[in-house]
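re: ur msg from earlier - yeah i can do the nicotinamide-adenine-dinucleotide complex, just paste it... oh wait u already did. ok heres what im feeding in:
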Amino acid sequence: MTMRRFEGRTVIVTGGARGMGASHVRGFADEGASLVVADVLEDEGRRLADEIGERALYQHLDVTEEDQWAATVENAERAFGPVSVLVNNAGVLAPGVIEHTPPDTWRRVLDVNLTGQFLGIRAVVPSMRRAEGGSIVNVSSVTGLKGVAGIGAYVASKWGLRGLTRTAALELSRDGIRVNSVHPGSVRTPMTEPDRSESSLLADDDSNPVTRLDISRMVEQLAIPRKAEPEEITRQVLFLASDEASFSTGAEFVADGGDLLGPVA
Ligand SMILES: NC(=O)c1ccc[n+]([C@@H]2O[C@H](COP(=O)([O-])OP(=O)(O)OC[C@H]3O[C@@H](n4cnc5c(N)ncnc54)[C@H](O)[C@@H]3O)[C@@H](O)[C@H]2O)c1
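and the outut:
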């Protein structure tokens, strides 16, 4: 029997139109949540919300825009009631060694991956107080726990999220709001496809010495030698968002196929 951990709860998933975000949206919907699919990808986002039906709506949200966050929370609350869960999932990747990363690219990655999550927490907290508590899941990465040559801006943004998560967990504890981060390894989504599409990728300059991350080769060396399916990360996100994780806050949850162990051979 399917569990129904989110019956009557309002959930916002940023970057919810595709990839891991879409998998999280489906997972929450299967367990009774009302959902806001928040993304800049209008067509994919609307299609997914339509597929779910009346318990879902698509909301245009660029996570870097404070006023769009206000509208997102307002529309969520008007449609479904106060927000209980925020999954800060939207993110972009910009390949490039530090020496060849244009400052504007650096700023944009930090803006989407870190400031976007900060703005989300700010926007959603008053609504979570009205819901008498909640859970915020910040999507970091295994790259937020180590160094990776060739994606410095991304790595820095994912490390930054850990500090934001821990601080928010302390500041919001007395409101009954838990805040945790997840740290996936390589997951099979458009972000890790060889022909990565524009909205997951900021710059891809072939003159840059490290622009092509060979994810397939990296994955072969893992203890679990494959990419994760999005659903394998969704299970962790749903756990943290639910009351099952009632004693976890400010914590980091890794699902990396053993990446942090180092290569097998
Ligand atoms: N795929 C992986 O291997 C992997 C591993 C670890 C962590 N992550 C993280 O997981 C999250 C989801 O990534 P994914 O792999 O599903 O990638 P994806 O590119 O398929 O999905 C990212 C989503 O975020 C949306 N987005 C991008 N910029 C946005 C903005 N400014 N405002 C709102 N939405 C925006 C995109 O439109 C897209 O729907 C990201 O934070 C990513 O960094 C991915």
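cool cool. The chain has one domain: 10-258. ping me if u need the other ligands too
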